[in-house]
Automatic annotation (TrEMBL):
Source organism: Parabacteroides gordonii MS-1 = DSM 23371
Pfam families (UniProt xref): Arylsulfotran_N, Arylsulfotrans
Signal peptide coordinates: none
Protein name: Arylsulfotransferase N-terminal domain-containing protein
One annotated GO molecular function: aryl sulfotransferase activity
Length: 600
């Protein structure tokens, strides 16, 4: 919310305007005037007045002020204008901010899409009579299950610009604005209507279908989807979908001078500031934007010797963690480039890289070409140059979790020392064997089948992650991973092979015993309808404990088309409590987040 001082109260004019006190009443009158001034300084509005004996009683929101009745000629209240005119017996007068009945006239302007990049947003410019807070409610359509969007802004300024998010496209939106005192007690409210235009970006989904939605059990918030567009030269577009399948927020950068070709990678992640962080694979930058899509700050990776690949997020210490490529890195032959195998930590304040992790110095870079490149789907496969394919990096305490598509999931410390790797054991050289976790059965006994350990077949109660994306640390200390199932058991197949599946899987890691046990999974039973050979992600939902399973491409949808899904699961029961189908769409990541950050 933006603030500006647009209502100025002049104590000097109040004192100079009151000249009607008689000699006998001068002390009492001046004391009353000072009390009124104090109440107005505290942003107390006048509620009512009455003559009680020799006193003229002014009742403010929190206190009462008494004036000598013989000094006051009249008090005229105008509730529409939120003011009262106090006139003294000599004809002088003063305006006192007063409680009104409607805030219609306090709304001086409404601007739809104020930034030009968020067509489902608006500004409501407020001119308030006293310090106070604003609350905004965007009402859901009749018959829709999505709750009204409500947000209580923190600003208490008289001049406020209320940022309205979550408008429906091509619709006359009903929005309620609530004006409160500084403590949140309501003073008045009004309803305005905001007409929006139809969304025009061709990369938005052609169709959505909500298969199921149990609102009472769902994690609150919207589903943030990040579409990469048709190519790297196209414009990526993030958008949010509600529980009814309606798009309620989007950033359209087609006409942005710097982001018009943005390749967004894994999409937006919210920062502690409330802004969003994303990478631009087209210009090789990290970019911070606000909720309206305006650039706040950017960092030029190319100038630092790196190109962006897929993922960036803010760590708990405020540093930025990004998966990248070193522009000058070469294979061991010294000729061919290698890429998607570096990670960096960047200080956003100093715009300096503070740590670099080279996966080739941490894990086995010779472990490649373990699948037949002539098989269908090889375009998504591993090569010598793209031997690792880093796609996610997240802090976990003082350590880090990296998801490496062709090598598994890796935990390492700040110095780059690898603590463990969850990966099929086949193909790893002897020097890395001590880093590989040993698989356990569900009952905790060791798996002894060499084929399961190697990864050439799946166990009944254990399987490794294949082509994985997005490792997420859980509150219980376990790790959840999106197992794409790409190249499962080192076998590539056509994407339409109905035996293929993807899953969300939870692993329990015992670092002392060097073991890994599969304790939960979802998706295998759903078969090919949840299969996504690439992209995709999982998320832990903290309020409910539910999990979000997001296969982002090539899903078989119920209308016969292909696309992506967002699935929310209760892990205790395995029940799907929300499922959204997005037809003809591809996305890198989906996340459940609140529409508003906590700090506007």
């Amino acid at each position: 919310m933006k603030t500006s001082g647009i209502y100025i109260f002049s104590l000097f004019s109040f004192i100079m305007g009151v000249t009607a006190c008689s000699d006998n009443d001068e002390v009492d009158c001046r004391g009353a005037i000072q009390t009124i001034q104090t109440q107005l300084q505290e942003s107390d509005l006048l509620k009512s007045s009455a003559v009680e004996g020799d006193n003229y009683v002014l009742s403010f929101e929190t206190k009462t002020v008494e004036l000598p009745a013989n000094t006051v000629q009249s008090l005229t209240t105008n509730p529409d204008e939120w003011k009262s005119i106090l006139t003294f017996i000599d004809g002088s007068s003063y305006t006192i901010p007063s409680v009104g009945t409607s805030i219609d006239k306090l709304v001086t302007n409404v601007i739809v899409n104020p930034s030009g990049y968020n067509p489902l947003s608006a500004y409501a410019v407020m001119n308030l009579p006293a310090l106070g807070r604003m609350k905004m409610i965007v009402h859901s359509k009749d018959g829709h299950r999505t709750p009204d969007i409500e947000y209580f802004f923190k600003s208490i300024e008289k001049g406020q610009t209320v940022t309205i998010l979550g408008l429906y496209p091509d619709y006359k939106n009903k929005v309620t604005l609530v004006y409160t005192d500084k403590d949140g007690k309501e003073r008045a409210r009004s309803t305005i209507h905001i007409q929006t235009e139809k969304l025009k970006n061709p990369n938005l989904p052609k169709k959505t279908n909500v298969v199921t939605a149990d609102i009472s059990r769902m994690e609150p918030g919207m589903n943030l989807i990040s579409s990469p567009g048709e190519s790297e030269a196209d414009t990526a577009i993030p958008y949010m979908i509600d529980a009814d399948g309606e798009i309620r927020w989007t950033l359209d950068w087609v006409n942005h001078p710097e982001l018009n070709h943005i390749d967004i990678g894994c999409g937006l992640s919210r920062m502690k500031s409330g802004n969003y962080l994303h990478g631009d694979g087209y210009r090789d930058k990290l970019v911070e934007v606000n909720t309206l899509g305006e650039i706040v700050k950017s960092w030029d990776l190319r100038a630092m010797g790196y190109s962006f690949h897929h993922d960036v997020a803010e760590n708990a210490d405020g540093k930025l963690l990004a998966t990248v490529s070193n522009i000058s890195a070469k294979l061991a032959n010294g000729k061919d480039i290698r890429y998607n195998d570096y990670m960096i930590e960047l200080d956003p304040v100093k715009s300096q890289i503070t740590q670099v992790w080279d996966l080739a110095a941490m894990i086995d870079s010779s472990r490649y070409q373990l699948t037949d490149p002539s098989l269908p789907g090889a375009a998504f496969g591993q090569t010598q140059s793209n031997w690792a394919h880093n796609n996610a990096l997240i802090g976990i305490g003082n350590d880090y979790l990296a998801t490496i598509r062709f090598q598994g999931v890796c935990k390492f410390n700040h110095a780059g020392g690898v603590k463990w790797i969850i990966s099929p054991h086949q193909g790893w050289r002897d020097k890395y064997q001590n880093l590989l976790l040993k698989p356990l059965h569900a009952d905790g006994s060791p798996i002894t089948d060499p084929d399961v350990i190697a990864g050439v077949k799946s166990g009944d109660d254990f399987d490794w992650p294949w082509g994985a994306h997005t490792a997420v640390p859980l509150p219980n200390g376990n790790v959840m991973v999106f197992d794409n199932g790409y190249g499962r058991n080192f076998v590539l197949a056509r994407f339409d092979d109905q035996s293929l599946y993807s899953r969300a899987v939870e692993y329990e890691v015992n670092e002392e015993q060097r073991t890994v046990r599969q304790v939960w999974q979802f998706g295998k039973e759903g078969g090919h309808k949840y299969y996504a050979p690439a992209r995709s992600g999982v998320q832990y939902l903290p309020q409910t404990g539910n999990r979000l399973f997001c296969p982002g491409m090539e899903n078989n949808l119920s209308d016969g088309s292909t696309g992506g899904r967002v699935v929310e699961i209760d892990p205790a029961t395995g029940q799907v409590i929300f499922e959204l189908e997005i037809s003809y769409a591809v996305y890198q990541r989906a996340r459940r987040i609140t529409l508003y950050p906590d700090n506007l």
